[in-house]
Fold this sequence. Notes:
By secondary structure, this protein is of the alpha/beta class. The protein contains 7 helices and 10 strands. It has a 7-stranded parallel sheet with strand order 1-10-9-6-2-3-5, sandwiched between helices. The mean pLDDT is 96. Fructose -6-phosphate (F6R) binds at residues 35-39, 66-67, 132-134, 138-140.
Amino acid sequence: xxxxxxxxxxxxxxxxxxxxxxxxxxxxxxxxxxxxxxxxxxxxxxxxxxxxxxxxxxxxxxxxxxxxxxxxxxxxxxxxxxxxxxxxxxxxxxxxxxxxxxxxxxxxxxxxxxxxxxxxxxxxxxxxxxxxxxxxxxxxxxxxxxxxxxxxxxxxxxxxxxxxxxxxxxxxxxxxxxxxxxxxxxxxxxxxxxxxxxxxxxxxxxxxxxxxxxxxxxxxxxxxxxxxxxxxxxxxxxxxxxx
Length: 243
Ligand code: F6R
């Protein structure tokens, strides 16, 4: 595991974007595993800037996102498709036919999860998987649990997640109660993993993930067993590390 120390969020985003551009330059038709959330926003902005300058070409690049809410159509502004389209895809020259996100509108969970696993397998697997880190150590929607869920599956969102999300919806009944997510095994099959972490509030969980016991109670701790992980964390995220 390589740990790169960044000064702040902007520096983290720039360093992460460097790792992703190196991948795209070395293998233009690579498969990028992508994430949503606040952590990768700056990384996407940096990649867009370099694309606009003519330094990057995504015309052959393919992508597979980690997760999507079940029950939200693509045009709902809370869907992960909407996030990816508006924060990244529409600004670069990636072919939308080469982008993949679980289909939140497929009601049959078993069918959708099997389809998505096959999509990734047919792509030849993910070359570089970008991950953010949840406050409880989750990656994708793989929450702390008694066991690692291996493949793409449907998760029931916790009451606290539903409660936290309700501000984005008209009523609590509109808040999605489930999501589709790549499993821990799906994530671990990526050839390379890039974990980006910013902010003091994630410092303790980052330390546990990188140096604590490997346990499904801290899903990101499984990354210790992957042989090609790059972590880019800012000083705040490293601030509670002992020593
Ligand atoms: C997003 C995802 C989540 C986030 C995590 C961190 O697709 O799968 O695991 O990466 O919740 O979120 P932020 O970056 O918003 O702190």
